[in-house]
Structure formats: C-alpha cells, structure tokens
Amino acid sequence: MADDPSGPVDEYGIPIIPDPSDAAQRKRQAIIDAALAEFLREGYSAASMDAITSRSGVSKATIYKHFGNKERLFLAVVGGILPTTYNDLKPFNSTIATAPDLRAALITLTLDWTRILLRPDIMSLRRLVIGEIDRFPQLGQLWYRVSYDMNNGPLIEAFTELSERGVLDAPDPALAVQQLVATTVGVPQLVRTFRPEAELDDAELTRQITSGVDLFLARYAA
Predict the structure, then answer these.
(1) How far apart are CA 182 and CA 212, in angstroms?
(2) Which of 16, 80, 127, 137 lies 20 to 30 Å (CA to CA) from residue 207?
(3) CB within 8 Å of 9: residues ≥ 6 apart
(4) Where are the domains of the chain?
(5) CATH level 2 (architecture), domain 85-220
(6) What confidence tier does 11 reach under pLDDT thresholds 50, 70, 90?
(7) Which DSSP category does 149 fall into?
(8) Residue 65 contacts by C-beta under 8 Å, 6 or more apart in sequence?
C-alpha cells in the first residue's frame, strides 16, 4: 500500500524523501534514473508509471512506497537534480574580482558557463522545467535560487568589489550581472532552448560571447 502522498516538503515545496536503508539504496537510485529518463522524454503528463516500473526493474508498489505518487516522484527527482546542475562551474567571484585582465576573465567565465548550460542533459532539463512551470512553480523557484546562489550571487559580489576599487562603474551590481548574462550566456541559451537542432560551432560561440562582454564593458568599464 502506498505511503501518504502528502508528506513533508522543503521551503520550495520539493518533497523530502527520507534516506533509504543501504539495502534499498540501489532500488531508490534505479527508480530515480528511470523516472528522470521517462520524464525527460515524455514530460510529466505523458510519462507512464508503468514505463518507469519497466525501466527501473522495481515494482510499482515499491515506487509508491518510496515516493508516494507520481507528482511527488516528479518533484523529488527533478528537484533533487537541480542543485547539482552547475557543479562543473568553478567558483569565480574571487578570480573575477582580482583578474589582471578583466575582459579576458569575463570572456573565459561566460564561455565556460555557456558551454555547461548548452550541454544536452541540462538543456533537456531546462525545457522540462519550463514546460511544467505552471503545474510545478516550485521547480522554477528552486532553479532560480540555484542559479542565483552559484552564478549571479558571486558575480554581484565581484562587481561590487570592482566598483569599490574603481575598475567598474556599476552603481547597481545586480542589474549589471543581469545585463552581462543577457548579452552573453542568454543569447545561445535562448536559441538552443527552442531550437535544439541549431548548430553553433565554437568559433561562433566565442564571437557571440566576446561581443557581449565588449558591450557590457562599453557601459560599465570605469
């Protein structure tokens, strides 16, 4: 019999799923892997619990025992992977704030950032969350917070320091970060979000990012 589906949730409304015993850990991971693959391929509505059962090799009763119902499974699986989305992006607030060549540092940063965001697995996850944002707004809130904490927040700190030192003239560092992201990372990300087949070689990506950084510095370089 399934557990009560209305279990505890975190501040974003993502279900808190208790850690399983060691014996159940492999089953839990098999369920998560199968559910993520099915949700990414079919979306929430069309995803089949039967297909997840088949993919995972775990009984439907066990899936319900671990996660409660399809909605909690979706939130737990997608919400669980979002915090690790940007793990490959190295911390950059201190390197930007002390970079001897700010232009080169910003180009390198935003190129690395963009290459990570354009990875097929992250783009598929992004489209899934966008497609389900009305049904599951908590996932959008979580993604925004993860992005802010790992990317925007550290850059705001760096731009604040650079402005205090007179390297940048950015009276509103948060707005400056938003504009940098919009003119660099945001351009190829928007294209790839809605045109997955769009080709973008590294030379063109570098050209777009460099142009965006130059536009940013034309406004904010002191």
Answers:
(1) 8
(2) 127
(3) 15, 16
(4) 22-82, 85-220
(5) Orthogonal Bundle (1.10)
(6) confident
(7) I
(8) 2, 3
Residue 200 amino acid letter = L
Convert the pLDDT of each residue in 51-98 to its tens digit.
999 999 999 998 988 888 999 999 999 988 888 877 776 655 558 989
Check: pTM over 0.85? Answer yes or no. Answer: no
Amino acid at 136: F
**Residue located via tokens 């990570």:** 116
What is the C-alpha radius of gyration for the chain, rounded to an integer number of angstroms? 21
- The full DSSP string for 206-217 is HHHHHHHHHHHH
**Residue pair 138/14 in contact by the 8 Å Cβ criterion:** yes
Structure tokens at 146: 């993860």
DSSP 86: T
At the second CATH level, the architecture of 22-82 is: Orthogonal Bundle (1.10)
